[in-house]
Specification:
- This protein is α+β, with helices and mostly antiparallel strands.
- Helix content is 49%, strand content 17%.
- It is built from 22 helices and 22 strands.
- The chain has a 7-stranded mixed β-sheet with strand order 10-22-21-20-11-18-19, sandwiched between helices. Strands 2-1-3-9-4-7 form a 6-stranded antiparallel β-sheet, with no helix packed on it.
- It is elongated and about 115 Å long.
Length: 695
């Protein structure tokens, strides 16, 4: 009897989830005052991000308007296009306009530079600030007597391009948080609370546990709860990834944020606010987005080193060109171009943006990632161990046989006494037994001194008798002979009923295999993943399910602690093991596996030991997870290669290695390439949304 220690399932305390209290704003992409690039997590972060985008947009337009006259009145531009139109005091006009551009347009970069220096982490803002400051100071000095040529026009175009690059990139980053924002916005603002015969509209925050609420057709459910009146089809697709509306009747649970279909329902509120399912999902997604994986640490280190390399090459370029006898203005231009082009912006954004998108999109598809590294490493899985009941099978048991092996007890009596122990349980076997009792109109007696026998069954006193409903493993441990006709050839699960220590009989139940299981297993095999099953069920049932699905092997009559041994044994053979289980009984095995995947039951998302939680118990979700994990990793690698490869090619060009061939890259062109590289990385990350398996 698989995972039959189930009576305390409902008592699992979600509030004990270990949530790190970290400041979201500290997750920066370019190591500077760059919190504006942060994928917004809460509503405040979201609004702050929008304000930052608006600020960059405004600064860009103002800078652009001022850049046009700077370009028009620049002697260098006039020489290039062959016209002359100089104002009285032309250099001073250019100086005045460029001063506004430098301080107003360049302000976000200068502010970021100060923050980076304070944090002792020079980065992208340092490079941009040094480039524009050197250009501004040198050009200003030429106005007031220093020999040389100003490049105010390059300063203005450089700042304008940097601002537009940041603006476009930040809009792309905001797109990454939109999936999460959709989750946040799923709760309605009001609820219809039922008080006697009246219905009052109250703000959502005033809703209390045990309140009765009315949900009309087409409305969103305001809180988690249980239907006490009415029935309807509810659309939970945004919460669980389940695309088909789910039929809900009295006593069924509903999730806050799901959309009611055609019927009015009255719901008794179970969870509100931070305890609600949706809030837990949002918290998990936020935490996963904050958690840095190995890949993210790698990109952070690369961005840091790129900053130091850029500073060294920048000043080195200045020195080399001066030593070669070139004019200071030429050497300075080379240095400024190196500084601009080497901004580690694309590199700083390469991983965090993929993280933000993949985590939020996963949550919308019923995959909750708690451990980023495990998710990224899901591409390495070579063996997948499945629990059987409710994952490979529907977990919808129906009683097929009841047999008595003790003439003192009739079949009906065995079923009646067993049902007393199963009444309060939600385990599929218990639900199957209760369904049969109700069909036969049998009155269920009350149990006393109820106790769960870990991994083997349950026991209680019923009408003065000691009753146990147990798995075959319990009989073997107690040296009780299993009746030879207990198992048929069918894929049945059998539980044994002991009365006062004596075997009285057994109940056989059948569980239908999920139609999605076969498809999922094909996907695993195509990806060279061995699929094994570890079940507490008997050998015949395990073999029947294994043969039907074409599994690579199975372990029957396994207790929870033995699953750990199976995982260890496979790991010792060099396999990268993923374990799927219900997150309660399978906790040790989930913790031991390289990737622990807990299959939830709709609202049960607090599987402490799992790396990834599947809201539905659908094996196709696991194939989606592995394929999406691969796609996510590939996007990270693509972005890293692009961001670093671009710099490897562009920095030498900016330094002037092709000067002898007549090719010189100006700061403004360098800024265009730098912004383009960042935007390419951002767009590439957005393409990840197409990679999640569509249901």
């Amino acid at each position: 009897m698989e995972n039959h220690e189930h009576h305390n399932h409902e008592e699992m305390d979600h509030s004990k989830m270990k949530h790190k209290k970290e400041d979201h704003s500290k997750m920066n992409h370019g190591k500077g005052d760059h919190s504006g690039h942060n994928p917004g997590h809460g509503q405040m972060g979201h609004d702050h991000h929008k304000m930052m985008i608006a600020d960059f947009r405004k600064r860009f337009w103002v800078t652009l308007v001022l850049t046009i006259p700077i370009l028009f009145f620049s002697p260098m531009i006039q020489d290039f296009f062959g016209y002359e139109f100089l104002l009285p005091g032309n250099p001073y006009v250019l100086f005045a306009l460029s001063t506004i551009v430098y301080f107003y347009g360049g302000w976000p970069f200068l502010k970021g530079f100060v923050s980076e220096v304070k944090d002792g982490a020079p980065g992208m803002m340092t490079l941009i600030s040094m480039a524009i400051t050197v250009a501004y100071v040198y050009s200003s000095a030429t106005v007031f007597g220093l020999e040389g040529v100003d490049f105010f026009w390059e300063l203005a175009t450089l700042i304008a391009i940097m601002l537009v690059g940041h603006w476009i990139e930040m809009r792309s980053v905001l797109g990454a948080s939109k999936a999460l924002q959709l989750l946040v916005s799923m709760m309605p603002a009001e609820a219809h609370r039922v008080k006697g015969d009246t219905v009052e509209d109250i703000p959502l925050e005033d809703l209390l546990i045990d309140d009765i609420i009315l949900v009309r057709p087409g409305e969103k459910v305001p809180a988690d709860g249980i239907i006490i009146e009415g029935s309807s089809y509810l659309n939970e697709s945004m919460l669980t990834g389940e695309s088909k509306p789910v039929k809900k009747d009295e006593k069924d649970k509903v999730i806050g944020g799901s959309v009611n279909g055609n019927g009015s329902i009255k719901v008794k509120v179970e969870h509100t606010g931070k305890d609600s399912y949706l809030n837990k999902v949002i918290t998990m997604v936020e935490e996963a987005q904050k958690t840095k994986s190995k890949m993210q640490n790698l990109s952070d280190r690369a961005a840091k080193w790129l900053t130091y390399i850029a500073l060294a090459i920048g000043f080195g370029t200045l020195a080399v060109w001066l030593m070669l006898g070139f004019p200071f203005v030429f050497a300075l231009e080379r240095m400024v171009t190196v500084m601009v082009i080497a901004c580690p912006h694309a590199l700083g954004l390469a991983i965090p943006l993929v993280v933000a998108i993949s985590t939020a999109v996963s949550a919308q598809n019923g995959l909750l990632i708690r451990n980023r590294t495990a998710f990224e490493e899901s591409r390495k899985i070579s063996v997948l161990i499945f629990d059987k009941t409710g994952t490979l099978t529907k977990g919808d048991f129906g009683v097929t046989r009841i047999e008595s092996v003790n003439e003192k007890f009739s079949k009906e009596e065995i079923l009646r006494l067993a049902s007393a122990l199963e009444l309060s349980s939600e385990h599929p076997i218990a639900v199957g037994i209760i369904k049969k009792v109700k069909e036969d109109n049998i009155t269920i007696p009350n149990p006393e001194n109820f106790n769960a026998i870990t991994g083997k069954g349950v026991e209680a006193s019923v009408e003065g008798k000691d009753i146990k409903v147990v798995s075959p493993g319990y009989l073997r441990d107690e040296k009780i002979t299993i009746p030879k006709d207990a198992y048929s050839d069918a894929a049945e699960t059998v539980v044994f009923v002991l009365i006062d220590g004596q075997l009285a009989g057994y109940i056989a139940l059948a569980d239908e295999i999920r139609p999605e299981s076969a498809e999922a297993i094909k996907v695993f095999k195509k990806n060279n993943i061995k699929v094994l099953m570890a079940t507490g069920d008997n050998e015949i049932t395990a073999k029947a399910v294994s043969d039907s699905l074409g599994l690579d092997g199975y372990y029957a009559e396994v207790l929870p602690h033995q699953k750990v041994e199976i995982v260890e044994e496979l790991q010792n053979k060099g396999e990268f093991v993923a374990m799927t289980g219900d997150g309660v009984n399978d906790a040790p095995a989930l913790a031991k596996a390289d990737v622990g995947i807990a299959v939830g039951s709709g609202t049960d998302v607090a599987a402490e030991t799992a790396d990834i939680i599947l809201v539905n118990s659908n094996p196709q979700d696991i194939s989606n997870l592995i394929l999406f994990g691969k796609a996510t990793y590939n996007k990270m690698i693509q972005n890293l290669i692009w961001a670093t490869g671009y710099n490897v090619v562009a920095i030498p060009l900016a330094a002037g290695v092709l000067y002898s061939s007549g090719f010189v890259l100006g700061p403004a062109v360098g800024a265009v390439f730098m912004s383009l590289s960042t935007i390419i990385v951002a767009i590439n990350a957005q393409l990840l949304k197409r990679k999640i398996g569509k249901k």
